[in-house]
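Protocol step 4 of 6: structure prediction from sequence.
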Amino acid sequence: MANTSDIRNGLCIEFNNDIWTVVEFQHVKPGKGAAFVRTKLKSLSHGRVVDNTFSAGHKIHPVRIERRKYQYLYKDDMGFHFMNNETYEQVSLNENIVENHDLLKEGMEVEILFHAQEERPLQMELPTDLIVKVTYTEPGLKGDTATNAMKPATIETGAEIKVPLFVNTDDKIKIDTRTRAYIQRVKD
């Protein structure tokens, strides 16, 4: 059992029958009244972000979360299948646990967050950036690179993202998996 003085970024707590991770927090001591802790919490099961205020000294229930590296194998009607590279143990995850599942490539290494006491998968996280090949995009016109205009492009995983006008079909690009934003073009 812990209290609000133990709150820090990244801490996972049990709150309102769900597991939440602390995204932001701020200890506030107003001139009048009791101190409190203002937090921004993200649900590991829904991905929803909420603001919550705890009074100072409020008891919280920390949860131990383990991050384990897994390799993505394939998707079927049972869900997404991953394999632990050390133990060769396989785990199947539902679509609601796998964020940005349309960015998954076979053989890609990901991190899966597990509830340590219950050995239950909570969330799958992609690497922060990913190098992919553009399979289709409209050709850009010469001289259109002066503006920051973007156009849709389909990448090898089947996902559609926005890229600058100078990116062509068969180019390799680096994207940010959290925002699905184009970062840069990559040379072979």
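Step 5 (inspection) to follow. The mean pLDDT is 89.
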